[in-house]
Amino acid sequence: MASLQLQAAAAVLALVAGAGAAHSFVFHEATVDAIQLGFSNDTLTSTALVRFYLDQIGRLNPLLHAVIEVNPDALRHAKHADADRRSSGNATGSLHGVPVLLKDNIATRDALNMTASSFALLGSVVRRDTGVVARLRAPAPWCSARPACLSGPASTKSTTGGAPAAARRGTRTC
């Protein structure tokens, strides 16, 4: 257990050190205000932000298992947000161009699955975004990934017929 924690800490420190050296924008734990400032002063683009987070997911997810699905259209959405910002000169809202994570029990009308942690719903297509997603999309953000976070009704579902892995371990995943 301690070895796993040390590996996770080493991975995070390596990523933070690498991110700071490679970019003038400080990505680690950036706030929405800092991200929007980076957009406005041209030290950050939505494409660079999405690439950074996709890289983080790719590097850390094999160890942490925190994200169950990434939107295959995330980079396309980021490029579109960058083009919108260049053409209009400003963002349409504080989340414009900022990727967000949504639990997999929140329906989105895009390439992401809405499974509520159940294989029975894999591949199902919803007619429209849920209300929360529709309100999030109003200022033009998009769902970039699905975190592996179990709580509420979804925490009682299992893909193997037994208790969810987090429940079997006696831990929460978020």
From TrEMBL:
What region holds the Amidase domain? 49-138
Signal peptide feature range: 1-21
InterPro entries from the UniProt entry? Amidase_dom (IPR023631), AS_sf (IPR036928)
Please note every region of biased composition (Low complexity). Answer: 159-168
Record's keyword terms, sorted: Signal
Q: Which domain of life is it from?
A: Eukaryota
The record's region (Disordered) falls at 152-174
The record ties this protein, via PANTHER family, to: AMIDASE, OS04G0183500 PROTEIN
Q: What protein name applies here?
A: Amidase domain-containing protein
- From what organism does this protein derive? Aegilops tauschii subsp. strangulata (Goatgrass)
